[in-house]
Amino acid sequence: MKQLEITIHNETGLHARPAKTLVNLVKKFKSDIVIWNGEKKANAKSLISVLTLGASKGSQLKFEVNGEDEETAVVEIEAAILSGLGEGEAVHSSQTTPSAQKTESTSTEQKPQKENMLRGVGAAPGIAIGPVFHFKRQEISLDEVSSGLVLDWERLQDALARAREQLENLNQQMIEKGLQAEAAIFDAHLGLLDDPELTDAVQTRIQKGQDALKAWKETIEDNAMVVATLNDPILSARADDLRDVGRRVLKLMVGADDKMDVLPDKPVIVVADELSPSDTVSFNKELVLGFCIVNGGPTSHTAILARALGLPAIVSVNESVLKLENDSYIIVDGSDGSLTFNPSPEELQAAEQQRNQWIEKRRVALEQANVPAITADGHEVEVVGNAGSLTDAEKALKMGAAGIGLLRTEFLFLERTTAPTESEQFDVYRPIAETMGKLPVIVRTLDVGGDKPLPYIEMMREENPFLGERGIRLCLNRPELFRQQLRAILRASAHGNLLIMFPMVGDIEEYRQARKMLDELQTELNIPRVSAGIMIEVPSAALMADVLAKEVDFFSIGTNDLTQYTLAMDRMHPALASKQDGLHPAVLRLIAKTIEGAHKHGKWAGICGELGSDPYAVPILIGLGIDELSVNVPSVPLVKAQIRGLNVSELRNLAQQALECSTALEVRELVKKTLSM
């Protein structure tokens, strides 16, 4: 038997994420492994058992490893703990000198700059200054509903009906505000609420004599646990949605809809371990200054809603934020993901000045929304909007967008039991084309697959759905579905300036197959040639951009996926959110190669990912020669305003320096220093 004694240096000890990392590591060994924390003992292969150790920062743990691979196990366990168990901490052994610690820690990305600062990931821009309000969801007692089969089932049906009405109202409110993507969150919740298998399972439990409240709660949790264990972040995220829906119904069943959770009664910054979409919209916007969330990434539903509400937010913050006292003042910077606690008078004054500058900057940008995005030295960059509906297109025009750079079409195919007909699709594309007039509308063909399955398409189970049958791969393997969409787009193109874009193209053959199908349909419908481009989302396409550009009409770089494939980091993984940075030099080099390949053959290249609205990225992208930036509609005026204050001749040198950097943090520091940001 081998033994290892080691100290935990993680700031918040062995909480859920590092504990899970440790357990996953230990499980690969055949040896029996036991951990001791004082007198507490745990099976190292059980997450619950490890969590019950209560190991905090400074805890001295003893590992007992017994088996055929015990030596290897001890070495790897020690290395993993010293490296921070996936939390990116600069953890050192007792032999490391203080000076060495200081040297290493200064090169660690995303380390706090000050002792009273925590780092997270910026999810919604802006500065929030105010008192902490810890939001804690209250548990619902299972004893607050009477028994009796008939009464129970009727009470559940009533709660389901009222929950459905609430969700329909929330969905409609978001649509009326032009927040189509946000409305889709509650539309998805309606889909979960109406799932027949869910209600059938509840009814079966009730028929066996179980109380309706318990039957509903246990059925929701059983299903959520199954979903949460799926090896896919998109599907796993549905577990949180399912629990949110379940809790909404439970509150209605016990008559606690408006009194369960304690909500703020004065302006505060909401701090929480996690927030569901229902939690987020339950707050009075006038009393919420910003959000600070431990779990979730910048693409979580809470982050989406925070941006829609115009509230600064940071996510993936260290759990130590939950220990801050209620009403203690903090500063949240939703742009760079920082949180300052116990701020000094000087820090408060600086933050207030920065907040006022941000508010004024946004006001001026909105006022000048229709002014062209021309740099100080006369270089024009097209700033267009990402859209998913007619409402989005109308809002894009008001915000000064020069067109639609990405029209998502998957919303037509999701949350339904049959594929949309050609006529249904045409009825959606045509009014968007007419609304935009001569301005370009780039329609992305169906972008679903293993990570976003369609119930009416039979697909094999995939271990790695992001690497599976998705995007153009799925469309080419379902030619009838693909032809139907292409016909609808081509017919609508007669009513505006539509272009077509194929997603997830990895090589020239995929584009040729899609283009051939498009050409055949154009001839069949007697419609003039429509331009067709591709999204550059995989490294193979970026590396072969000069070859692809000989035949492709344009490129639009999807930086979200390109970043995850380049860095081999799942973009929906909350523990990796802070490392998912499109300004990583590896990603920038692929972007540069794509632009170079396009321009070599007289084609244009744009950006349609989150990077396009990142104020630190915009100067780099323009310096690399990008022709178009397609951003979320609310960001259009701000991006245009930023461009008008830049000088291309200076940015070219900045971009080349960025390509020579070692990390994304170095790139951001370079931009900050060069442009005094």
Summary of the model, kept short:
By secondary structure, this protein is of the alpha/beta class.
Which labels suit this protein?
8-stranded mixed beta sheet, single chain, Glucose Oxidase, domain 1, Enzyme I, Chain A, domain 2, 8-stranded parallel beta barrel, 677 residues, alpha/beta, Histidine-containing Protein, Chain: A
Describe the structure.
The protein is an alpha/beta fold. The protein folds into four domains: 2-106, HPr-like (Histidine-containing Protein, Chain: A), CATH 3.30.1340; 117-137 and 261-361, 3-Layer(bba) Sandwich (Glucose Oxidase, domain 1), CATH 3.50.30; 149-253, PtsI, HPr-binding domain (Enzyme I, Chain A, domain 2); 368-675, Phosphoenolpyruvate-binding domains (TIM Barrel). 45% of the residues lie in helices and 15% in strands. A hairpin with a 4-residue loop joins β11 and β12. It is globular, with a radius of gyration of 26 Å.
